[in-house]
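Quick note —
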Amino acid sequence: MKIQLPEKVRQIIETLQSHGYEAYAVGGCVRDSLLGRVPGDWDITTSALPEQTKALFARTFDTGIEHGTITVLLDKEGFEVTTYRIDGKYEDSRHPSEVTFTRSLSEDLLRRDFTINAMAYNDESGIVDLFGGMEDLQNRIIRCVGQAEARFGEDALRIMRAVRFSAQLGFGIEAKTQEAIRLLAPNLRQISAERIQVELIKLLVSPHPEQIRLAYELGITQVILPEFDALMETQQETPHHRYNVGEHTICALQNCDADKVLRLTMLFHDMGKPAKKTIDENGRAHFKGHAEVSERIAKDIMHRLKFDNDTLRKVTKLVYYHDYRMPGSFRNVRRAMNKIGEELFPYYMQIRMADTLAQSEYRREEKLKNLEEIEEIYQEICRQKQCVSLKTLAVKGGDLIQAGVQRGPQIGEVLNQLLELVIEDPELNQKEILLKEVEKIIQNQ
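Predicted structure written out below.
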């Protein structure tokens, strides 16, 4: 089978070959090419030592030269070229204590994680598949190279990568590989929060976010996200729901776009339910105040996993407002846009829809009609450019100072009073009208 290599990748491989070295495209780029996907990047492995590779190309820089990796620059595009290597003992469940360069491609491929990632290719040799990667691609299976316990014992992050690849590719995980994950999942405690976060996001925004269920079944979430295990153990004895909280969350994840903020919000939106669950005298469950608790838990998790402040702000605000309901009226929608924010309101609408579709059929038609009305009103508010925030208020702080309002906190207080008037009646958002209101406010102080 022939793979269409990018011209620059072919150039690097042929340059190395012409000087007596072996060179192949390797890993994910080979896998994706065989699956008909466009590789995100192209990695090259070679028998040449790093210094030998550097001598053949005009522009290179050391990416991880201690591990044999340099980056070759061709027309400002970078390609990682790594010397065949054998990894030494892994002492921290993540990194080898040392690496030894080798002249053997098979020894290099043996150290890789999964069979589907352990194939190499060049135009001269074709596909080099020593561990059944092609067969596993055809059977849609994730399988470790060699002994699964050894591979996961070397690098615990591979445990999450197995489930992430399963979610991205829609593949199953081979039985012995699953057994090794169950056994070694506790080793994920030694992996940095940043690494866990990256793999979690890739899983969530994949075509199969429901594979977080597999992460739960294999004991992964118990280590990295124990709050999710609590969801899977919390029933919802209410006509509004047909699943436990965890299965409802999984269904909601599948109902929204593959967007990081949306999927994280759906993952966290009901995290407060286990703590807020009560049962009334009729055996019906209630979860009053769960949105506030969910926001607090989401904030704790995102701090723990080292999320950036912008993502944390957006997600936690949406979690807080995910259950914010209102009759469909212009006044209510304007007020909701003000509370939630113009930037986040479209996300809020998707979240409400995803949440509703993950519930039972009970009153669903009524709920969907309400969301449809809100959406229509929202679109009309946008079309008319009605004011819902200070940034589009017809007067600014300087106008108030000229009108006689004292500098300081009073400026903000008066602006917010004017905004309240405009949210109630958008026709009032005219400078002359608002300055007359300012005169009234000054007179009444």
